[in-house]
Specification:
Blueprint: H1 4-10, H2 14-20, H3 43-49, H4 60-65, H5 79-82, E1 92-97, E2 103-106, H6 107-113, E3 117-124, E4 129-139, H7 140-147, E5 155-160, E6 180-184, H8 185-189, E7 194-199, E8 202-203, E9 213-215, E10 228-234, H9 241-245, E11 269-272, E12 279-280, H10 288-291
Parallel strand pairs: 1-10, 4-11
Antiparallel strand pairs: 1-2, 3-4, 4-7, 5-6, 5-10, 7-8, 7-9, 11-12
Bound molecules: ligand MTE.
């Protein structure tokens, strides 16, 4: 990311924590989620599936005040305030391309597909900071089952809203807009891949990607595209924003991998937000058991 080195080097200081944990940061209030169901699985099963992490949750305040969302600002501590008036009434998600049943969904259509469940995932940013976040959402596979990809569909492309009036960062050329991301179809169908509509038991706030975002916990955080308006099934690998920006630094796969350094910094360790000292970064961010089989036979130092 643009300010990655600076961020990585200052993060370790206590002063920085105090700064982005200010209790006075102005931000949007979000409603409690009424449709969050308790998991059908036991905690032991959730741990086994990777749906729950046996680690301390990152404080809600840090998740809400330390963000990457370039459509609003490139200042991590500034996103909550810059996005606080972003309204998502009447939001629509258009799903099409190589599918049998293309459809434009309202948020209530989406919520009718599946109850929302809580998933507690690690999030590892490519800039080498990390959090543990209790998301609420449902697996992307449930949506794909509704639209039914055709036999030719091999990839899933995602697109963020493009509206420079509502997202003033899009008036700058810091990235090509709209922000786009992509997954291989098997990755999109993996049970860990979540369409999130909430966190900490409340609706997703603007700064974290309201009203709907992607979460792929074994990949670097930039794959988690926010405020999605379009999903397209394709035969070819779709372009992705950070890969277009710096192809030698950010690959299509972006799987968390402590053995493959970013050209400008090491990926071997990470700064867990709110913790002193650094942790070792885990292969696939600790989700090896759930995802490694998708990459068998691939050289992960080439397919970054
Ligand atoms: N999605 C959009 N549309 N725009 C962005 O700038 N930043 C990405 C990702 N999704 C980004 C985005 C990056 S770099 C990260 S690390 C995560 O969002 C941060 O998510 P968070 O702010 O909820 O922690």
């Amino acid at each position: 990311m643009k300010a990655a080195i600076a961020a990585g080097s200052v993060l370790a200081t206590g002063a920085t924590y105090r700064w982005f944990n200010r209790t006075t940061t102005p931000m949007a209030e979000t409603a409690a989620l009424s449709d969050l169901v308790s998991a059908e699985l036991t905690d032991a099963q959730r741990l086994q599936n990777g749906f729950l992490v046996d680690e301390e949750w990152t404080p809600e305040r840090s998740i809400l005040t330390y963000n990457n969302f370039y459509e609003f600002t490139t200042s991590k501590e500034g996103v909550a305030q810059a996005a606080m008036n972003f309204k998502v009434d009447g939001w629509q998600l258009q799903v099409g391309g190589l599918v049998q049943n293309p459809k434009t969904f309202s948020m209530s259509d989406l919520k009718a597909i599946s109850p929302l469940e809580e998933r507690v995932y690690r999030m590892r940013c490519v800039e080498a900071w990390s959090m543990v976040i209790p998301w609420a959402g449902f697996p992307l596979s449930r949506l794909l089952e509704v639209v039914q990809p055709t036999a030719d569909a091999k990839y899933v492309a995602f697109e963020t809203l493009h509206d420079p009036v509502r997202m003033p960062g899009q008036k700058t050329d810091v990235l090509d807009w709209p922000y786009v991301e992509g997954l291989r179809l098997d990755e999109a169908m993996n049970p860990l891949t979540l369409l999130a509509m909430g966190l900490y038991g409340k609706e997703l706030p603007p700064q974290d990607g309201a009203p709907i975002r992607l979460v792929t916990p074994w990949k670097y955080g930039f794959k988690g595209i926010k405020s999605i308006v379009k999903i397209t099934l394709t035969a070819m690998e779709p372009p992705t924003s950070w890969n277009r920006y710096a192809p030698n630094e950010y690959g299509f796969y972006a799987n968390v991998n402590p053995a493959v350094d970013h050209p400008r910094w090491s990926q071997a360790t990470e700064q867990r937000i709110g913790e002193a000292g650094r942790r070792k970064t885990l292969m696939f961010n600790g989700y090896e058991e759930q995802v490694a089989s998708m990459y068998e036979g691939m050289d992960l130092s080439v397919h970054i």
